[in-house]
Structure formats: C-alpha cells, structure tokens
Specification:
The complex is a heterodimer of chains A (110) and B (114). Chain A contains no helices and 11 strands. Chain A is an all-beta fold and 110 residues long. In chain A, strands 2, 4, 5, 9, 10 and 11 form a 6-stranded mixed beta sheet that branches. Chain A is globular, with a radius of gyration of 13 Å. Chain A starts with a strand and ends with a strand. In chain B, the strands form 2 sheets. In chain B, strands 2, 4, 5, 6, 9, 10 and 11 form a 7-stranded mixed beta sheet that branches. In chain B, strands 1-3-8-7 form a 4-stranded antiparallel beta sheet, with no helix packed on it. Classes of the chains: A mainly beta (110), B mainly beta (114). At the A-B interface, strand 4 and strand 5 of A face strand 5 and strand 10 of B.
Amino acid sequence: GEDVEQSLFLSVREGDSSVINCTYTDSSSTYLYWYKQEPGAGLQLLTYIFSNMDMKQDQRLTVLLNKKDKHLSLRIADTQTGDSAIYFCAEMNYGQNFVFGPGTRLSVLP
Amino acid sequence: DAGVIQSPRHEVTEMGQEVTLRCKPISGHNSLFWYRQTMMRGLELLIYFNNNVPIDDSGMPEDRFSAKMPNASFSTLKIQPSEPRDSAVYFCASSLRTGMETQYFGPGTRLLVL
C-alpha cells in the first residue's frame, strides 16, 4: 500500500537552513504537499508541488522532488524560532487518496 | 472565509459517555475528512465524504465510532460509548475536488476521556 516516511525530529540553530526529508512509495503520486502544524493548531498548507516538477521556490521555502527516488525535501532558509513546528509531508495519487507522513518535529535553537 | 469550523475546541468527559464532535466545512467544498491525531499513532484518516456520501470509512476504529454528513455544510463524528483510549485531537478538513486536492484543516477538538 501507499506509505510516506519522514524522520521524526530535527534540530537546527536560528539562522541556519533546515532540510526536512520525505520518501514515498506510490509511483502514481500526482501532487506532493508540505503542511505545518504549530502547537495547539490544525495543519496549515505551506506549499505543494506537482509530480512533473522537480523544484519549487516560495520565499524562504524550497521544495525539491526526485521522482526517480521518490524523495521530497523541504528547505527552510534562515530558520527562525517561529518555524518551530511539526512538518507533514503528504501525497495524493491518481486514485485521489491522500496519505500523510508521521511528521517531523523541527526545533529551532537560539 | 472563516475556514473550517470545529466545535467544541475542548471536551472532557467520563468513560462511557457519548461524545459528539461537529464540523462546518468551507463553503463550496464538497469533500470532508475526519482525522485523529495522537502521539503514538500520528495522524490517522478515520473517514471521508464526497458530496455528503461516505466514501471510505475503513479508518474508523470500531463500531463505537460513527460519522454523518446530513448536508454540505455540517458533519458530526460521534463516539458512543467513549473510552480513555479515544483521547486525542480530532481534526476535520475539507477540500474542493478539482484534481489538486488541497485539504484545509480546522483547529481540532481536543478530547480527553477520563
């Protein structure tokens, strides 16, 4: 079945870049998403990428997709304390099933 | 737009009681999803509706859980009887099925069953 994997924890220093990685198994993925969840809140869509793209940049966020290896990453430049949150990778496939990863808890140290 | 609205935001109840969680999706969205989030199991999809019809309820843990969507602007998730292991944050999300199915999440209901 479909599976989305992420490392569970990442710590970085304020001002450094953060890279959160995700792997997925479904080769029919059409869209891949990154969601952010701040403490006590719901999931908020950060960005998405269509499966025929390999990169998307949006201000401090850069999404890289390696479709051959089924690997997705989210790079946050100049990480701030406000970026501390759980980041979920998710994919949607042609069957329109939506699958979330377990989430990566990003801690930004001063 | 107010976004996805969930109520209550917090619920504390005793084991054996009935719990009803409510969701109002974003106006115009025709898909609605119920998720449960715990530390142990992460984010789990319980059930989703398309045009008010349940499409996949395979994630519903057991018969104590039921969900309804009587119209396009309202859904409920009911647990009867509730048990301590049901304690979790329950999220509702909605989307517009256009092929690029971005889900928009509500703030969640934090449920504690004593």
